[in-house]
Amino acid sequence: MQDGNPTIYAVFEQVARRQPGRTAVIYLGSRYTYGQLRTAAERFARALHALGLRPGARVVIYLPNTVHWIVSWLGILRAGGICVPIIPIHMPQELGHVVNDSGADTIVCADTNFGYVHRVMAERGLKRVIVARMTEILPAYKRLFGWLFNMVPRGSVAWGPRIHAFRALLKAHGNDPLPEIETSSQSVAEILYTSGTTHSSRGVPITHADFLASALEQIRISDALVPSHENIVMGHSPLYHILGQTCGLATLLVGGTLLIQPHINIDATFDAIARFHVRTLVAVPSFYRMMLEHERMDQYRLDSVDYWFSAGDVLPQELNKRWKARFGKIIHQGYGCTETCGGVAMCPVGRPYPATCVGRVLDSKEVMIVDPVFLDPQPYDTPGELLVRSKNMVTAYVNTPEQTRQAFIQRDGKTWYRTGDVMSLDASGYLYFIDRTTDTIDHDGHPVSASEVEAVLQEHPAVVGTCVIGVPDSRFGERIKACVVLKPDTKGITGYELIKWCRKRMLPYMVPQYVEFRDMLPKSKLGKLLRREVREEERQRAAAA
Predict the structure, then answer these.
(1) Can you name the CATH fold of 441-544?
(2) Is the pLDDT of residue 142 over 70?
(3) Is-above-0.90 flag for pTM?
(4) Phi/psi of residue 328, each to 5°?
(5) CATH class of residue range 314-436
(6) Of 257, 255, 252, 264, which is closest to residue 291 (Cα–Cα)?
(7) Are residues 92 and 390 in contact, defined by beta-carbon separation less than 8 angstroms?
């Protein structure tokens, strides 16, 4: 490991050695210094090594945004492992798929979702499970307070030889030997999964070099407003997501402070901003709208924030205008993908830019607008599918050669990623979002595959056909609507029953909010579902309302 090609942990360790007493993380009102965080990460790495984990092993991080998540991530990297962060509300089917696809034999989970882990342990051959409780690293008086007033959710754990307590491991292995791990900057640091179901989830392998190049570029984009080493970033994006990592977690690599909360709560967000003088907030557009519409917003001082940042969906202009009228500051936005290691374009700070853009293409990225069918390059200001390439970018998925061939193409000897988004590019390098070529619905910052929701609905014995679309919504970006055709002579089936069917089989944010029964759905002469026609019908209906 050389200074010119460092790993993620080496960069963090250098910062921690330089400023051990500075606050690195704020969690549930408690501060953790860089020195404390480094010590905990080293202890966790020693514990993993003592349990038999060796360099290159995959470890699933199945936790909400907690200090345990950060200690686990850093500790796994220190031990030479590969992190596999996933959604903490994954159900057994999705959890089992990720474990099998990634080849992981270790999981770090919360006690509240241990039940799901226990269900997949035997069939997936897990060697070890490490269970964390939400408050166990907090000061003793806070743990007691939460226990006395029943304020902390707790789950039941079936302890056994392969199941270990997070806090106990940190205590027991503080002085264990840990050999120096030779990890290359080109080694895979983590595998992020781009979807939440087994039908299309794709593992995206990100190397240390890829992560550092993208994360350091993005975390420093706001230096003109607040120097990155002085920044206090409140990250409302989950740490398992590339946005939460490159625009939140990355602050630990430049000496800033990261404030996290295990669950989103508007009042708690307001209080934390005012109490800890947060300088940056990272959130999706729907969260900013909820803040504006909250009845107690005026009771808190939020003027410490210099940089409001939004990504995960297109920020409505009217929302930004209301924000500027309220705070005298605008919300900057950005656009990116997991495959591109986050940001492709971000709005510059300290200078004007077009209000309708999603950002200016970053120096590390090269983009091309092409015809979605023939892939011919399009001139400036002409809509087309966005292709992206970079020196530090993923070029293949894990174990999915067919999806890799569809998503990554060769042009002029270079590998380009097909984003599936219809955009336009102007001569100054600003990107403008137009539409999507893929059937993806953006619900509250979560990308939802319409075809996957349709597949679940069509498993219902009474359903013969379905079409799922996104309906524009001022609060959530888009709501999910299912148009359903039932089998002839079917009686007694209600929309509620179909929604209940979906709730048992998919993640909560993928469940349709509306169900409309139809006699038929529009299809092409070849029998292909014409989803665009259904979307256009919905648009005309909304316009006439």
Answers:
(1) GMP Synthetase; Chain A, domain 3 (3.30.300)
(2) no
(3) no
(4) 75, 10
(5) mainly beta
(6) 264
(7) no
Structure tokens at 285: 């557009």
Q: Identify whether the C-beta of residue 344 lies closer than 8 Å to the C-beta of residue 361.
A: yes
392: which residues sit within 8 A by CB, 6+ positions away?
Answer: 207, 209, 210, 213, 214, 341, 364
CATH number of 8-308: 3.40.50.12780
Given this chain, do its domains 8-308 and 441-544 carry the same CATH topology?
no
- CB under 8 Å to 157, separation ≥6 — which residues? 111, 114, 131, 163
- 487-525: per-residue pLDDT in tens? 888 888 999 999 999 999 888 999 999 999 999 888 754
CA angle 283, 396, 237 (to 5 degrees): 10
CA–CA separation, 371 and 377 (whole Å): 6
pLDDT for residue 170 is more than 60: yes
* Rounded Cα–Cα distance for residues 43 and 301 (Å): 39
Q: What residue ranges in 7-158 does DSSP mark as E strands? A: 23-27, 30-33, 58-62, 82-85, 106-110, 128-132
Helix 67-78 and helix 34-50: axis angle, to 10°? 60
Contact residues for 457 (Cβ-Cβ < 8 A; gap 6+): 463, 466, 468, 482, 484, 498, 501, 502, 512
Specify the pLDDT at position 536: 82
Domain ranges of the chain: 8-308, 314-436, 441-544
Q: Which helix (H) or strand (E) holds 271?
A: helix 266-276
